[in-house]
Amino acid sequence: MHPWVGEMAAYSFGWCEVGGAPAAASGGKGVRQALAVLGAESAGARGHAGVPGAVAVELVHAFSLLHDDIMDGDTTRRGRPTVWQAYGTGPAVLAGDALFALAVETLAMAPAGPQAVRLLSEALQDLVRGQADDLLFATRPWTGPERVRPDEYRAMAEHKTGSLLGCAAALGALLGGAPPASVAALDRAGRHLGVAFQVVDDLLGIWGDPTVTGKPVHGDLRERKKTFPVLAALDSPAAGPLAPLLESAADPAAAAALIEELGGRSAALAEARRQVAAAEAALADVPLEARAAGELRSLIDFLVRRDL
Ligand code: GRG
């Protein structure tokens, strides 16, 4: 990469400070790399067969976070200033573009390159679709025929978050030599996991302990986000007083209490559990190497448990 662009990319991975001095900041949980390596192992291959897939999805993940932070105007990520805050918006867009190009190049050079690039580009189309719907949700009303329904949320979350999780596992399987049915099953499992992950994130955004989540208390309610617990509560016949409370955002604690009273919290928990069960059912649909399948199940558990 161009050295300046490379520095921004390295900064986004937590490898350096602004100016290039080495750093050991958080580079994220590494969930997608783990899924790619386990995908390869689940096909009976060695984990390193999945590494080009792990690298490519992590590059795309970093790219999408970088651009997402610009779109949302978020100033911190993983406990440090976002790339656009540290380097400026134009340079940050460019760094994202470079990460994207490197992701495609990585897969194009891998065995099964054309098929792998195709899996990745399908996931990218879905990512854009999910992000577009999420941006549009902010412009929609709380009530009436134009309101966002829980089904639309599911589709958004599957695209925005599930597509890349599914792609990670599917790429690993493809690179590990798995048959098409297994590649497809791992993709499905990742997609369900993505919806569960987003719903859990929503629950934590309202009821999570800020010292654990690192997010401000009731942040999503202050920002008037269309999260799953809110949408489920709005579907209740007794939801009348909720919409004005959400719109004013002046008393998020009262809104959180009403959402819970209207069943939004329990509906979201039930949804997360349903999605986890569907992810596990997808894994059970095809023959997978037993130890890797067990680790995939543990990873799913770890991701959705996150202190609920
Ligand atoms: C990729 C072509 C293309 C376009 C990008 C900006 C955009 C379109 C999409 C945004 C997608 C996005 C930011 C989804 C959120 C995904 C998500 C759950 C992020 C958090 O993932 P973690 O918790 O993060 O795995 P860490 O920090 O652990 O890596």
UniProtKB/TrEMBL annotation:
GO terms for molecular function: metal ion binding; prenyltransferase activity. Pfam families: polyprenyl_synt. InterPro entries: Isoprenoid_synthase_dom_sf, Polyprenyl_synt, Polyprenyl_synt_CS. The keyword Metal-binding applies. The keyword DNA damage does not apply. It comes from the Bacteria. One of its GO terms (biological process) is isoprenoid biosynthetic process. Keywords: Magnesium, Metal-binding, Transferase. PROSITE patterns: POLYPRENYL_SYNTHASE_1 (PS00723), POLYPRENYL_SYNTHASE_2 (PS00444). Belongs to the FPP/GGPP synthase family. This is Polyprenyl synthetase family protein. It comes from Streptomyces cyaneochromogenes. The lineage of its organism: Bacteria, Bacillati, Actinomycetota, Actinomycetes, Kitasatosporales.
